[in-house]
Amino acid sequence: MSLIKQDDRITVDTFLEGIWRENPVFVMMLGMCPVLAVTNSAINALAMGLATAFVLVASSLLVSLFRNLIPSEVRIATYIVIISTFVTIVDYTMQALSQEVYNALGAFIQLIVVNCIILGRAEACASRNKPLKSMVNAAGMGLGFTLALLCLGVVREILGSGSLFGLPLFSEQFQPWVVMVLPPGGFLVLGGWLLFFEWLKTRKQYA
Amino acid sequence: MATDSLTFIFFNAFLANNFVLAMFLGLCPFLGVSGKLNTAVPMGLATSFVMLVSSVCAYFLNEVLVAFNIEYLRLISYIVVIASAVQLVEMTLKKLSPALFRSLGIYLPLITTNCAILGLALFQTFKEYNFMQSLAYALGAGAGFILALLLMAGLRERLDLAKLPSVTQGAALSLILGGLLSLAFMGFAGLGAE
């Protein structure tokens, strides 16, 4: 993980870095548990991605505002408490907005606390940058995470249930690959995406 | 078998609903430390121990939270308990076996952010297990975690010797291996998964 330099300029790269070059899922392999667990449909993937992005941006702001007040010995504990406060907020909000999505995501909303992307951002970016810059960077990371979750969710929903965002795509004859919405499908689809990106990379090298 | 008997809870967490391969908890160490058998075993044991300690603490903590009607503090207090349990393991290991302590390196403090542990504490609360059931659940989850790590490490040690296409090296291969293991574990659902 590259540390962001001390300068205060906010460039396009501050935002884009999280989406492509340092994509938390496909490049850095962080926060894998929710990536595989809740992506059995596109709508769950989207809800989970947005919830994580919100916690990421909000906790980056708070960590960055308090960065000069937090003693470095207890910083991790402080970050965790800040993060879990926001996760509790998201947990209750989600429950109020849609009981159905809340039930589908289950404990994984609360498990955002231990998502390493958020702690990683707090440590590597928010604790040494101004609030606005940290927020821009966190928003990029959050968006990158959401996109990655959607990549998996869309593939798994199309193959596993023959629908997209709940709308059926195929005629009655379509035989869904049930395994894709079950746990093994998560591993296999993510493995497939990684193979695809690796293949793109090698092709670029030899072209 | 009754779904609340201790044996059922143990085997449910151990095989049928294996924490790593069926519920996707604790994937970071599963992918990160499973390269070699001789680091996978201590890592698995340390994690299981933390699971046991934090499960017991979480049980009593939840009783207190419910008694005072402050359940919204559950998440924060659980994570603090887990962080302290990890600290305890870290100090014990440093004292008893400095060599092992060094070989686990950064992964030891990272047990705090292992979702298997917080997940265990949260699930046992949702399922309203009593004290003995929580213990059985923690033991089963720990054993399941060790089993998954061992299987994965064994496979990866073998694959180091195999000739593979260059594209499949690294994480992609581990994930596909994980997928195959997970497929195999689906067979245990026949034991009667919850």
UniProtKB/TrEMBL annotation, chain A:
Pfam families: Rnf-Nqr. It is found in: Cell inner membrane; Endomembrane system. Coiled coil: none annotated. GO terms for cellular component: endomembrane system; plasma membrane. Its EC number is 7.-.-.-. It is a multi-pass membrane protein. Keywords: Cell inner membrane, Cell membrane, Electron transport, Membrane, Translocase, Transmembrane, Transmembrane helix, Transport. The keyword Membrane applies. Part of a membrane-bound complex that couples electron transfer with translocation of ions across the membrane. Belongs to the NqrDE/RnfAE family. This is Ion-translocating oxidoreductase complex subunit E.
From TrEMBL, chain B:
The keyword Transmembrane helix applies. The keyword Translocase applies. The chain crosses the membrane at residues 6-28, 40-61, 73-93, 105-123, 135-155, 167-191. Keywords: Cell inner membrane, Cell membrane, Electron transport, Membrane, Translocase, Transmembrane, Transmembrane helix, Transport. Signal peptide: none annotated. GO terms for biological process: electron transport chain. It is a multi-pass membrane protein. GO terms for cellular component: endomembrane system; plasma membrane. It is found in: Cell inner membrane; Endomembrane system. It is an enzyme of class 7 (translocase). Its EC number is 7.-.-.-. PANTHER family: INTEGRAL MEMBRANE PROTEIN OF SOXR-REDUCING COMPLEX, ION-TRANSLOCATING OXIDOREDUCTASE COMPLEX SUBUNIT A. The complex is composed of six subunits: RnfA, RnfB, RnfC, RnfD, RnfE and RnfG. Part of a membrane-bound complex that couples electron transfer with translocation of ions across the membrane. Belongs to the NqrDE/RnfAE family. This is Ion-translocating oxidoreductase complex subunit A. It comes from Thiothrix caldifontis. The gene is rnfA.
